[in-house]
Amino acid sequence: MRSFKLNDNGFTGLEAAIVLIAFVVVAAVFSYVVLGAGFFTTQKAQETVYEASGQATSSFEVVGQVYGIATSQKTAIDYIRFNIGNTAGGGQMDITKMAVTYVDETTRQDLKFTSAEGTSLDGALASSWSKWGIRERINANSGNLLEKGEQFVLEAGTPTSAKLNARITLNLLPSKGAPNALHRSIPAGLNTINILF
């Protein structure tokens, strides 16, 4: 019987070079895939951080007092009036895309935006309390974008449950950014214009 011995005489330098080149090519492709995945992950993480910081910061704030207006009766307020303006570093915001919700002990209602302004807004709120709108624009053009240095006077209707000593909340949720919640109490006695604390 013939015996086979291990003989590497046929393994030349050319074959060694081919094997080496194959290992280098495979390593290069693998490192390219790994680096590409790392760059993609880093970019996504950066986008997430920027988006989160944009969502976490509020783009507007309530400026001054919140007023409860009682025009028809002195046992409940008819609507709420307050000013909003941009925060420092806040970007422009389309007011019409803001969601407004009224909440008290017995009522929860999503309010609808109405384009009525000025005295016509009084009529719109009187006909249906489940509305809100822009009463007046201060240092602003006629658009609905709240921009740097501008203020909007907003009014929101209230139901008959917004009566004496009631605790009410008006939630303001912009399309982008953090929500603002106005928690206020109606005083024990009402005038036509009342500061809500």
Compact summary:
By secondary structure, the protein is α+β, with helices and mostly antiparallel strands.
What does this structure look like?
The protein has 197 residues and is of the alpha+beta class. It is 27% helix and 34% strand. It contains 2 helices and 11 strands; from the N terminus they run αβββββαββββββ. The chain has helices spanning 13-56, 119-127, and strands spanning 60-69, 79-86, 93-94, 99-103, 108-114, 131-138, 145-146, 151-157, 167-173, 180-185, 193-196. The strands form 2 sheets. It has a 9-stranded mixed β-sheet. The longest helix has 44 residues, at 13-56. The radius of gyration is 33 Å and the shape is rod-shaped. The N and C termini lie far apart (107 Å). The mean pLDDT is 86.
Structural key phrases:
single chain, 2 helices, alpha+beta
| Unreliable sequence segments | none
Helix content: 25-40%
Main pleated-sheet profile: 9 strands, mixed
Helix/sheet category:
alpha+beta
- Spatial ordering of strands, largest sheet: 10-9-4-5-6-8-2-1-11
Rg from alpha-carbon coordinates: 33 Å
Sheet-strand content, in percent, reads: 25-35%
